[in-house]
Amino acid sequence: MPTQADYLLTNDDGIHAPGLVALRAAFEGRVRTAVAAPASQRSAVGHSITIHKPITCDPVPLGRGRRGYAVDGTPADCVKLALCELFPKPPRFLLSGINFGANLGVNVFYSGTVAAAMEAAFAGIPSFAISLCTKQDPRWKDATAIARRVVEEFAPFVEGTPVCLNVNIPNLPASRIRGVRFTHQAPVSWEDYFHRRLDPRGRTYFWMDGDQVASKNGRPAPHDLTDIEAVRRGYVSVTPLRLSLTCEDTFERLATRKRRPGITSRGKDRPS
Question: Is the whole-model pTM more than 0.70?
Answer without folding.
Answer: yes
